[in-house]
Amino acid sequence: MDVFKVLGKRWNGMIIVALLQRPARFSELAKMIDGITDGILTDRLRELMAAKLVERQLAEGPSTAVLYRLTPVGEDLREAFRELHAWAGRNNIGELCNP
Question: The HTH hxlR-type domain covers which part of the protein (predicted)?
Fold first, then answer.
């Protein structure tokens, strides 16, 4: 799979950066990513799950809440995103989230 088909798609990088911070419920992700619609978030999460970067996990406790989290493959992107953040800082390429 071409890496840019997944990582280059709008919103996917922001979803990954959000999940690098911690696993999150759908509603939490929607709040963390300004401007994303529920429909787009649903589609992008499906794509990231198909690419084996994100997985669904049932939250512990009596509720049936679902958490989204990075897989070990997704976690492997942490250093790459740190490097991108550092590169953007060195080159004044806008403000990026700190993974």
Answer: 1-96
